[in-house]
Amino acid sequence: MNATDLKAIEACIGNYFDALYTGDTNLLMGQVFHPNAHLYAANLNGGFVDWPMDAFKKVIESRPSPKTRGCKRQERIVSIDEAGPDTVMVKVEVLVGTRDFVDYLSLLKLSGEWRIISKTCVLIDELTEAQAAAE
Length: 135
Description:
Layout: H1 3-22, H2 25-32, E1 33-42, E2 48-52, H3 53-61, E3 75-84, E4 87-96, E5 99-110, E6 113-126, H4 129-132
Parallel strand pairs: 1-6
Antiparallel strand pairs: 1-2, 3-4, 4-5, 5-6
């Protein structure tokens, strides 16, 4: 992967982190996710989550952002795996409010822009409000 693509991928993931923390759905849907993207997860009650972006957007808009709740920011890129010149898989760890997730983000380079086309996530831990509070 060339340095230009790596920088663009890291910028996309940085915008992803920013949008989750601030609740900015315009950034999330306008610059981070491809319009046809989906979110997948195993439901804690044994079900299956398969949300198109409009459903994910409603979830983000229906809750106070971690920033407005005074939660700390905690996120990192764990790995970037290049499958080809226009396809990568990025593993991240991200605290969203009180919920600690591991996300696998599939990115495609389409028309010169890197966008998330698929998000598969797992809830690792649920923190208390005090544990999630910014220090």
